[in-house]
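tool=predict chain=A
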Amino acid sequence: MSLWTRVRDGFRGDNLNRELDEEFAAHIEEAIAQGRDPEEVRRAFGSMLRQREASRRVRVAGWLDGLRADVIFGWRQLKRNKVTSAAAVLSLALAMGACVSAFRLVDALLWRPLPVAHSERLFGLSRQEVTFDGKPHSFDGWAYPDFELMRAAAKGHAELVAVSYTERMDLTYASDDEMEKGYVQYVSGWMFDSFGLRPSLGRLLTAADDQMPGVHPYAVLSYDYWTRRFGQDPKVLGRTLRLGDKLLEIVGVGPRSFTGTEPGTVTEIFVPTMMHRWVTRKDATWHRALAIIEPGLAMEPLRAKLDAINTAFERERAKGFTGMAQPSIDNYLKQRVELLPASTGISGMQQDYRQALAWLSVLVVLVLLIACANVANLMTAQATARAREMALRVSIGAGRLRLVQMVLVESVMLAAMSALLGALFAWRAAPLVLSLISTPDNPARLILPTDGRVLGFGVLLIVGVVLLFGLLPALRASAVKPVNALKGGDDPHARRRLMHGMIAVQVAFCFLVVFTASLFVATFERLAHKPLGYSTQGLLLLETVAPQGKSPVDWSQVADVLRTKPGVEKVAISGWPLMAGSWNDSISMNGGPPSVDLAYFLPVSPDWFGTMQMRMTAGRDFRSSDVYPGAAVINEAFVRRFFQGVNPVGRYFEEAGDDGSKKQCMVVGVVADAPYKGFREPIVPVVFLPYRQVDEKGAVQPQHNGTFLVKVSGGNPMAMAQDMRRTVASPERSAPLQIPAPSSPPATPAAPGCPEG
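tool=predict ok
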C-alpha cells in the first residue's frame, strides 16, 4: 500500500470505518454461505473492534491518525472554552502581527539584499575622519576626480561604481506644460552591466555613455516609474525630458526588480554621472562610491591602496586652504578609507532609522513574550483542571509523548489562528508605520513584498510561539501521576507555583515595556516642547530655483506679488530653510588667524526675523540697502564664542575662506539662538547675511536659489500652497521661477570648513 494511500485514508475517518465494517461483514457472510456455522465464524473472526483497529493500523499512518484525533479533540476544547480561546487568539494575534510588521520594515530597509548579481561582494567606500573643528565624523560622499583615481588604482581587484545621492528634482517632458517631480540618480554608465541587470525595454546606460562631461544626454527610467507615469507605453523610447537646463533622451527602461541603491527611496530616472554639473569639481562631494570586490580578494591591501590614493588627493587639495588654520587642516587630513558591506544598499534612511528600528524590534519582542506568558498561564491552568483526564489517559496506556503531542496540537491551533489574524494586522501596520515617517513633500517608499522571506519568518514565529507558550504546559500536563491525580494531589499548592512564577515574569516584562515606552514619551515631550527660538504657526515655505539666476530685485518683486494675496500677512526670503541646508566657514577676529571652530551662514531678506518671529536682543534688522559683504546679524552663540559675551553691535569680524580670502562684516544686530542643523544638534554660532550679495567690484550677484517664507493669517497654510505655486511659477514673467518639492538637502559643494558639503 502506497504512502499516499495511507495518508489519504487518514483523513477519511468514519467513511473508512464503514468500509472496514462492510468488508468484515462480507467476509463473515461469505464464510456462512460456504456452510460454516455462524457462531463458529464469528467466534473465529474475533472482536470486530479489535479487527477494525488492526486494519486501520495497516491502512492508515499511525502518527497521522493520532494527529487527526488530536486536532478534532483540540478543536472541541477550544469551542468549549470560547471566551478564553478568543482572548488568547486576540492577544497572540496582536503580538505576532506586530512582530511580522517590524520584520517587514527591518528586512526591507536593513536586511534585504539588492536584486543585483553577487550582492554579497558589494561594499561601500566611506571615510572615517575628523572635521575641521576636531569632531569625529563618518562620511560616504566623494568628489568625482578622486573617485576616478581610486577606480584606476583598483583595476583588477574591484570595480568601482559612482552613484549620486538620489534627489527629488523638477523635470518636464517636451509635450507637457506643467513641471513635475522625479527622483533622479546619477550613476556610472557601467553600473547596470556590473550589477548583471538587463533592460525591460530599450537599452541601459553603458560605459560609452559616461566618458566625457555633457556629451551623452541619456536617461533610463525605472520599471516602477515607467508603469506609474507612462502605463508601460513602449513609445516612451526616444522621448525627451528636461532636467534643469539639460535635455535628456529616454533610451530604455530598467529591470522590474531594481529601484536604485538607496532603500527607502525608489529611484525613477537614472542619468550618467558625466551629466552632473559638478563632475569635474574637486571640492564637491556629491556621490557615493560602491566597490564590487573580486572573489577571494583580501580586503586590507585594497583598502590601504584606496586610502593612499585618497590621502594624496586630499593633501594636494589642502594646498589651496591658505586661509585656514593649520590645526583645522591637520584635522581634515586625518582621514581613513573604509570598506563597509553594502549588499543591502546604502541610504540616509538606513542611518536615520537603524537605531529606532532596533528599539522597535526589542519592544515587539517584549510584547510577544508578555502575550506568550499570558497564554502559557492560561494553558497551565487548563492543564491543571484536566489533571484527572490526563491521569485516566495514562492509566489506559497513553505515553508521555502522546500527551505532549495532544497539548501541543491545541497550542498549534491557537498559534495558527492567531497567525492568520495577525497577518491581517501586519498587512496594514507596516505601511501605516511607513506613512508616519513620511511627509507629503518627501515620501519614504519601501518595497514590502509578502514573499518567501516574510512567509518563512512567519512559520518560524509560529514555531517559536508554540514552544514559548505551549511546551511548558504540555510537559507539565504529561508529567501527571495517576495515583496522586485521582486522589486530588498530594500538595494543593504545588500546581500554583508555576503559574505564580509565570505571572511574576509577565509583570516584570510589563514593567520593562512601560518603562521603555515612558522613555520614548519623555523624549517626544522634550522635543515637542523644546524652545525653537521662532514660530512656525501659519508659515508656508516655497523653495524655489532660478536655473538662469535672478537678481535680488526680481526675487523681491515676486515677494511683493505674494504680499497682495488675500490672507498673507508677511513675506520674506532666505537662501534655504533652517535645518535644511548648510554653509560654514572659519572666522577671523581683529585680523587674527582663522578660527578652528566654524560659524554657519544663512542669507536672508529684510523682515525675515519678523516673519519667523525671532527675537532681536540687540541692534536692528536688515535694511534693503544692506549688502554682503558688509552687514551681518549674529546669534547669541556667536556672541559667546567670538565676542566673549561683549555687546558686538558695531564691531567687525571677517569670514575666512579656505582660499585665503577674507570678507569683512559689521554686526548690526543680534538675535536669540535657534536650531540651525537639527532639533537634536547643539546650538551653533550663526551669521545671518543680507540676501543681496555683491562681488569685489560691487556688482550685484544673481541668485539661483531661494525660499519664500509666507506668513498666513488663520486657516491652514497648505490650502494656499497651489495658488502660491502658480503665482511664483507664473509664465507671465520672462523667466519664471521653479518650485522643487521640499526634500532632504541635495549635495552641495564642499564649503570652506565643510569637506562633505
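The CA atoms of residues 40 and 46 lie 10 Å apart. The chain is about 45% helix and 20% strand.
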